[in-house]
Amino acid sequence: MNVKARILFVSVIGTILVSCILYGCFFIFSGNEGEEITKPPNTTITKYKGIWLPSLREVNISLRDIDSLKLDGVNIVAISVKICLEGDSIMECESEKQIRNAINEFHKNGIRVFLIINPAHPDFGINPFSSEASGKPLLDKITSIVLKWANISEMYGIEIFCPANEPQLLSYQKEKDVSDWAQELLPKLREIYHGKIGFRVQNMAEGFAVYNLTGYDYVVFGGLTCTKDIEENPGWVENIIKRAVNRLKEVYPGQKYIFFDCGAFTGPDYYWWEPIAPANMAHTMPDLPRDFFTVSNQSQAEFYDMFFNITWDETEGYFIPVYKGWEYRGKPAEKVIREWFNK
Question: Is 16's pLDDT higher than 50?
Answer without folding.
Answer: no
